[in-house]
C-alpha cells in the first residue's frame, strides 16, 4: 500500500467517507442506525466471546519499592560509556580548547563538555577568542597534573585515587572556583577522613573558609578545640595568628564556649545523679514503711546463707537514718543534721505521694496538709523538685509532673 504524501489533498478531502470507522456495532447487514434495545442481549452474547481478557493488575511490590534497593547508590552510566568519555579526553579527538597551566603545560579539551560541566568555564569560553581553530583559557596557580585530573573529572566523573589524594586541596580549590559541586563533595569527604592532622588543620580551616565549606570548617574547628594545647604550639597556628588575628579570636571564643558547655554537661550529670539518689531514697522509704525490710539489721550483723541482700540500694543508709530519727532526743528540724535530712525526705515523699490517706509513711498526711498553706513561690519550688526527681528516673509520671509547671 502506497503512503500518502504530506501535501496530498486526499488527506483533508471531504469526499471520502469515514462512517465505517464509527459503525462499531455492525452485525451483518444491520447498522447502528437499525440497532434497537431488543437486540442488546443477543449482541452481548455474540461479542463477549471475542473480547480479550484484561491484563492483570500490577503486583504490590511492582514499582519504586521493588527496585529502590537495587538502584540505591548505583550509577546510571554504563562502564563502557564512562570509558568512552575518558578516552575522548585522553586522546583529545576533535578538541577545540587549549588549557594553559602554570608550568606551561597544554591540555586539550572540548568546549561543549566544559561549558555544560561548569558555568564558569562556559563564561570564560564565550569570552575567549578563536585562534587557529582553538580557544585558549588559563588556569594559573595550580600544577598541571591537578588541572588535568580536574578536566578529566568533568568528562567522566573518574579520577585516580592516588592523584586525588596528592592534589586534594588543589582540586578542592578548582571545584569551588569553577562551581563543580560533585567534585567538591568528594574532596571534602577525603579531607575529613584521611587528610586532617594536627599539623595542617589550621591551614585547612583557612582554606575551607575561603572555599565556603561549612562542614569542613566545623570538622577543623572541632579538632582544634579537642587538641588545642598541641595545635596552639604548631607553626600553622603561629602563622595564622599573624596573618589572620580575627580567626584566632573566633577560635578562642569557640574554645571558651565549648568549655562552658562541657562544664554545664558535667553539672547536669551531677544534678541528675543527686535527683536519682533522691528517687531511690523515696522507693526505699516506701519499701521500709510499707513492706518492712527484713535483710537489714545492725551494721555488725552478717546475713545468713538463706538471706539475700535487699534490692533497694538506698535501703541500708535510709534505715539507719530512720532509726536515728525515731530515737533522737533533739528531734528538731534545725537542731540535728540527720533529723533535718529526714524531715526533708518525708516532706518530699508527701509531695510525690498520690494516696496520703492510705500511705504508711509517717507524717505523710501532715505534710500534705501543711503544703496547702505554703506560698506560691515555695509551692513552685517543691513542684520543680518533684518533676526533676521523676525526670531523673525517666518515668511516665515525670511528664505529667512537668506539665503541671507550665502556666
From TrEMBL:
Boundaries of every BTB domain copy: 95-163
Metabolic or biological pathway, per its Swiss-Prot or TrEMBL entry: Protein modification; protein ubiquitination
Swiss-Prot/TrEMBL keywords: Metal-binding, Ubl conjugation pathway, Zinc, Zinc-finger
Keyword Metal-binding carried by entry: yes
Entry GO MF terms: calmodulin binding; zinc ion binding
Secretion signal span: none
Entry keyword Zinc-finger: yes
Pfam families assigned to the protein according to its UniProt record, in alphabetical order: BTB, zf-TAZ
Occurrences of domain TAZ-type (ranges): 269-367
GO aspect biological process, one term: regulation of DNA-templated transcription
Protein name: BTB/POZ and TAZ domain-containing protein 3
Species per Swiss-Prot/TrEMBL record: Canna indica (Indian-shot)
Source species taxonomy: Eukaryota, Viridiplantae, Streptophyta, Embryophyta, Tracheophyta
Amino acid at each position: 500500500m502506497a503512503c500518502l504524501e504530506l501535501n496530498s489533498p486526499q488527506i483533508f478531502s471531504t469526499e471520502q467517507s469515514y462512517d465505517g470507522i464509527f459503525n462499531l456495532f455492525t452485525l451483518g447487514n444491520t447498522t447502528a442506525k437499525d440497532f434497537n434495545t431488543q437486540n442488546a442481549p443477543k449482541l452481548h452474547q455474540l461479542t463477549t466471546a471475542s473480547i480479550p481478557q484484561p491484563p492483570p493488575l500490577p503486583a504490590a511490590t511492582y514499582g519504586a519499592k521493588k527496585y529502590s534497593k537495587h538502584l540505591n547508590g548505583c550509577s546510571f552510566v554504563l562502564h563502557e560509556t564512562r570509558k568512552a568519555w575518558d578516552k575522548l579526553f585522553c586522546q583529545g579527538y576533535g578538541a577545540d580548547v587549549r588549557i594553559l597551566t602554570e608550568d606551561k603545560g597544554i591540555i586539550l579539551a572540548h568546549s561543549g563538555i566544559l561549558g555544560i560541566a561548569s558555568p564558569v568555564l562556559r563564561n570564560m569560553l564565550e569570552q575567549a577568542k578563536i585562534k587557529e581553530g582553538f580557544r585558549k583559557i588559563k588556569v594559573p596557580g595550580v600544577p598541571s597534573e591537578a588541572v588535568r585530573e580536574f578536566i578529566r573529572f568533568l568528562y567522566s566523573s573518574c579520577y585516580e585515587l592516588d592523584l586525588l589524594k596528592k592534589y586534594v586541596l588543589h582540586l578542592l580549590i578548582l571545584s569551588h572556583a569553577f562551581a563543580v559541586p560533585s567534585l567538591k563533595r568528594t574532596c571534602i569527604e577525603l579531607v575529613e577522613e584521611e587528610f586532617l592532622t594536627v599539623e595542617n588543620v589550621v591551614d585547612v580551616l583557612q582554606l575551607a573558609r575561603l572555599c565556603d565549606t561549612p562542614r569542613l570548617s566545623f570538622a577543623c574547628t572541632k579538632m582544634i578545640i579537642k587538641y588545642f594545647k598541641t595545635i596552639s604550639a604548631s607553626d600553622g597556628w603561629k602563622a595564622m595568628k599573624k596573618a589572620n588575628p580575627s580567626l584566632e579570636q573566633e577560635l578562642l571564643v569557640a574554645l571558651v564556649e565549648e568549655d562552658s558547655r562541657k562544664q554545664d554537661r558535667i553539672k547536669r550529670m551531677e544534678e541528675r545523679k543527686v535527683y536519682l539518689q533522691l528517687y531511690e531514697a523515696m522507693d526505699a522509704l516506701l519499701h521500709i514503711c510499707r513492706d518492712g525490710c527484713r535483710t537489714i539489721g545492725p551494721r555488725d550483723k552478717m546475713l545468713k546463707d538463706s538471706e539475700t541482700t535487699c534490692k533497694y540500694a538506698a535501703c541500708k543508709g535510709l534505715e539507719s537514718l530512720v532509726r536515728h530519727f525515731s530515737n533522737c532526743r533533739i528531734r528538731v528540724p534545725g537542731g540535728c543534721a540527720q533529723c533535718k535530712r529526714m524531715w526533708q525526705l518525708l516532706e518530699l515523699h508527701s509531695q510525690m505521694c498520690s494516696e496520703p490517706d492510705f500511705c504508711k509513711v509517717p507524717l505523710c498526711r501532715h505534710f500534705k496538709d501543711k503544703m496547702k498553706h505554703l506560698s506560691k513561690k515555695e509551692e513552685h519550688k517543691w513542684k520543680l523538685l518533684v518533676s526533676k526527681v521523676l525526670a531523673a528516673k525517666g518515668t511516665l509520671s515525670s511528664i505529667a509532673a512537668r506539665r503541671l509547671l507550665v502556666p
